[in-house]
Write a structure and sequence with these properties.
GO molecular function, one term: oxidized pyrimidine nucleobase lesion DNA N-glycosylase activity
Protein name: DNA-(apurinic or apyrimidinic site) lyase
Number of domains: 2
Radius of gyration: 21 Å
CATH architecture of the largest domain: Alpha-Beta Barrel
Keywords: DNA damage, DNA repair, DNA-binding, Endonuclease, Glycosidase, Hydrolase, Lyase, Metal-binding, Multifunctional enzyme, Nuclease, Zinc, Zinc-finger
Pfam families: Fapy_DNA_glyco, H2TH
Number of strands: 13
Shape: globular
InterPro entries: FPG_cat (IPR012319), FPG_N (IPR035937), H2TH_FPG (IPR015886), Ribosomal_uS13-like_H2TH (IPR010979), Znf_DNA_glyclase/AP_lyase (IPR000214)
CATH topology of the largest domain: N-terminal domain of MutM-like DNA repair proteins
Helix content: 10-25%
CATH superfamily of the largest domain: MutM-like, N-terminal
Largest sheet: 5 strands, antiparallel
Order of helices and strands: HEHEEEEEEEEHHHHHEEEE
Strand order of the largest sheet: 1-7-8-5-6
Number of helices: 7
Length: 325
């Protein structure tokens, strides 16, 4: 499932390429026909993300709300002026970087400066190829949005619906603060987390407590803060909880900027710059079970691996049994 940084990149991409342009909305699959009819011919005026939810608001007040879930993905294309990524969403790989189309001037390709947020799926056959007209939609295309210069297709999303302003507010009120929102209140996260006796590893995955954190960011921030994922959340001090929040602001910000999840500090990947850290040098514990810990240097202790993989809230949990003891 794409984590929050990918949805923020998605929102920025729509802001750059769809907001302010009249949109032709259809549902080739048919399941979203009524919703598409409500949006067809209208102009997007705002594109935002809150955690893993994407909201595209139109000039008549209706909002397209999408949650990609485990299998959802957006695919993009357009003419030579439509310089974006090829796709965002499943299939996801750890720290997957986006593939951008060619810029209008091949001699000056668009830099990876974080201003064109996007995520490219492996095996994309159209990256780098501009097309003024969209191809025939796949049978599973839930919604297609087309402007004068580009198009976007959505498949496989767990949520795809049109909301009124009141309904948008209700959805957002059920979400916790988002570390990627500059206006978010870290204190609200501390208050919500400190009220529960559930394991902090489970709490970080609860979108009603903190929005946008997924399996990778959960494992990596708990390791970086040297916190045992099994500790009850209410046993953490305010300072520890704020430390987790501040670390997530940092790590998820890198994800937005780079389009890849990179959590390692420079001293733990000597000679490897941030831009080249993925995949071998990108993480401390995620998918590194059985390997040597980059911090404590332990591979095994008393016959057991230092970095282990367990299960928590039906997802794999990675930790260093030495550093996070």
């Amino acid at each position: 499932m794409p984590e929050g940084h990918s949805i923020h990149r998605l929102a920025r991409q729509f802001q750059d390429t769809f907001v302010g342009q009249s949109v032709r909305a259809t549902s080739p699959q048919g399941r979203f026909a009524e919703g598409a009819a409500l949006l067809d011919g209208h102009v997007p005026v705002e594109s935002i993300a809150h955690g893993k939810h994407f909201f595209l608001t139109f000039d008549h007040g209706h909002t397209l709300n999408v949650h990609l879930g485990m299998y959802g993905a957006w695919t993009f294309g357009g003419d030579h002026t439509f310089t974006v990524a090829s796709s965002i969403g499943a299939p996801r790989r750890i720290g997957e970087r986006e593939i951008h189309r060619e810029s209008a001037d091949p001699a000056h390709p668009r830099p990876d400066d974080g201003r064109s947020p996007s995520a490219g799926a492996p095996g994309d056959a159209v990256a780098g190829r501009a097309a003024a007209e969209p191809p025939e939609p796949t049978p599973t295309t839930r919604v297609r949005l087309v402007t004068q210069h580009g198009w976007a297709d959505l498949v496989g999303a767990s949520i795809c619906r049109v909301l009124t302003p009141d309904e948008v507010e209700q959805v957002r009120s059920n979400l916790g603060p988002d570390p990627l929102d500059p206006q978010a209140d870290a204190g609200e996260f501390v208050r919500r987390a400190s009220r529960t006796g559930r394991a902090i590893g489970a709490v970080l995955m609860d979108q009603s407590i903190i929005a946008g954190v997924g399996n990778i960011f959960r494992a990596e921030t708990l390791f970086r803060q040297l916190i045992d994922p099994h500790r009850p959340a209410r046993s953490l001090s305010d300072q520890e909880l704020r430390g987790l929040w501040e670390d997530l602001v940092l790590l998820m910000g890198i994800g937005v900027r780079r389009g890849r999840i990179i959590t390692t500090a420079p001293e733990h990947r000597p000679g490897v710059p941030e831009a080249e850290a993925w995949p071998e040098h990108a993480t401390y514990v995620y998918q590194r079970q059985g390997q040597t810990c980059l911090v404590c240097g332990t591979t095994s202790r008393d016959g057991a691996d230092a970095i282990v993989v367990e299960e928590m809230v039906q997802r794999k949990l990675y930790r260093c049994a030495v550093c996070q003891a």
